[in-house]
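Study this chain:
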Amino acid sequence: MSETTADSTPAFILPELQPGRRAYLDGLGSDYEPAESWGFQDGADPARRQRAWVAQRARYGFDGRETWSLRTTMMELLYERLKMYLDLADSVINLDHYQFIFEGVAFTQRECIVLLIALAEDALHPDREERVSDEASGRFWTLWALIHPVMWW
């Protein structure tokens, strides 16, 4: 068994690679691991990989782990931002102004955002065998493509 820190992060992870707080992703459950925390379970040389990831983060602001499953990484990013958007935009704009037809049903912008959040939570659920469920992911991206032009304030 490998040594861990008090917050259960493996002790050999360099400080530059410690995942930051991801409050909305933390809400998915204690077993959820953001894409940026992947890559320490496969037995590869951690020191060599960490040096490469630190260099990538210094150069690009992110590292290669976030490219291993772009559909997961992008859904994580959008999920967090949709949660905050719903919290912030509601006091600035009317989220019930626009209506969209999705799967034959009319939804307001607010209802679309709430559905997107629910689909992301289903797709990213930590108990899944697959990292992101295909059905929830497909519905998520189809709905996002429909409403993204009005997602600003």
Notes: Residues 70-150 form one domain.
